[in-house]
Write a structure and sequence with these properties.
alpha/beta; Rossmann fold; seven-stranded parallel sheet; 11 helices; 11 strands; about 40% helix; about 15% strand; globular
Length: about 280
C-alpha cells in the first residue's frame, strides 16, 4: 500500500503544490497532476482521468468552479480502487446570502460535496475561506506590488487562512486516521480588515501598502478600463462581497480540530512570506 501513489490534482496551484511538497517531505509517492504539471491532467478532458487514477490509493480533488465534474471523476476513482478522497470545497456554501453567485459556483460545489459523501469511499471535505496568499501570489498581488489596494470591501474583515495550514490539513486527511467523514471549515484565528492587512504587509515588507475602499461600481469600471470583460468584472466584484459584508469574518475551528494546533495568524503569514522572499517585488 505504501508504494501506491497519492494523486494531487491542481498540483501547480496554491494548495496543490504545498500538499505535494508536504507529502514528498514525508517520503510518500505523489502523482502531481495538472494541465502543465508533472503528470498531464485536464478536468475538461476525461481521457486524462484514467492515467491519473490508475494505481492510486488516495486523491486530493481540487475542482473547477462552476462545473459538475467531480461526480463522474469520483465514480471513476472508485472503479480504479481509490479508497480515500479529500475534496477542496468552499467556506460559507451552506450559509444563505453568503455571496452573490451569478456564475453558478455554489451549485457545482454542493454537487461535488454530495458526490463524495455518496461515493462509498473514505472522504474528507475541506472548506477554506479567503487565502492569505491572495495578497502575495493571487488576486491582490499586483495591487500589493503597486502599493495601493483598491477594493469594494468597505471596512469589512475576513479571517484569512494561510494556504500552508490548508495543505497541512489536506496532507493529514490523505494520510492519517480520524479524518474520514469530517468537514473542515478552514480559517485563520482572527478577523482582519483590509486596512489592518495592508498595515501588516507594510510592516513585514518595509514597503508602504495603502488600502483604498471604493464602490462596487467604481471597481467594475476600473477593471473594465484595465481590459476585463464587463461580465467578468461584475462577477469578480461579487467575489469581494463577503469581505464588504463581513460574512467571511467568522472564525472556523477546522485547522485546530484537524491538526491539534492553532491556525497561523495573518501577521505570521506576512513575516514568513517576507523571510522567504515571497512578496511581489
Amino acid at each position: 500500500m505504501s508504494e501506491q501513489p497519492i494523486l494531487v490534482t491542481g498540483a501547480t496551484g496554491k494548495t496543490g503544490r504545498r500538499v505535494v511538497r508536504r507529502l514528498r517531505a514525508q517520503g510518500l509517492p505523489v502523482r502531481a497532476a495538472a494541465r502543465g504539471g508533472e503528470h498531464a491532467f485536464d478536468w475538461a478532458d476525461p481521457g486524462t482521468w484514467d492515467a491519473a487514477l490508475r494505481g492510486v490509493r488516495a486523491a486530493y480533488i481540487v475542482q473547477v468552479d462552476g462545473t459538475k465534474l467531480v461526480r463522474p471523476f469520483v465514480e471513476r476513482a472508485a472503479r480504479h480502487g481509490v479508497r480515500r478522497v479529500v475534496l477542496a470545497s468552499g467556506r460559507g456554501i451552506d450559509l444563505p446570502g453568503y455571496a452573490n453567485d451569478r456564475d453558478g459556483v455554489l451549485e457545482g460545489l454542493l454537487d461535488s460535496e454530495a458526490a463524495v459523501r455518496e461515493s462509498g469511499l473514505e472522504w474528507t471535505i475541506t472548506r477554506p475561506g479567503w487565502f492569505a496568499q491572495n495578497f502575495s501570489e493571487g488576486f491582490f498581488a499586483d495591487a500589493v506590488r503597486a502599493g495601493e489596494l483598491r477594493l469594494p470591501a468597505g471596512d469589512g474583515a475576513a479571517s484569512f487562512v494561510d494556504a500552508e495550514d490548508i495543505a497541512a490539513v489536506v496532507a493529514a486527511a490523505l494520510t492519517g486516521d480520524g479524518h474520514a467523514g469530517q468537514v473542515y471549515e478552514l480559517s485563520g484565528p482572527e478577523a482582519v480588515t483590509l486596512t489592518e492587512a495592508a498595515a501588516t504587509i507594510s510592516e513585514a515588507t518595509g514597503r508602504k501598502l495603502r488600502y483604498v475602499p471604493i464602490s462596487p461600481r467604481e471597481y467594475v469600471a476600473e477593471l473594465v478600463q484595465q481590459g476585463w470583460p464587463a461580465a467578468d468584472a461584475a462577477a469578480f466584484a461579487d467575489v469581494i462581497e463577503p469581505l464588504r459584508n463581513g460574512t467571511d469574518a467568522y472564525v472556523s475551528d477546522g485547522v485546530p480540530r484537524a491538526l491539534g494546533r492553532p491556525a497561523r495568524t495573518f501577521a505570521a503569514f506576512a513575516k514568513a512570506t517576507a523571510a522567504e522572499g515571497g512578496w511581489p517585488a
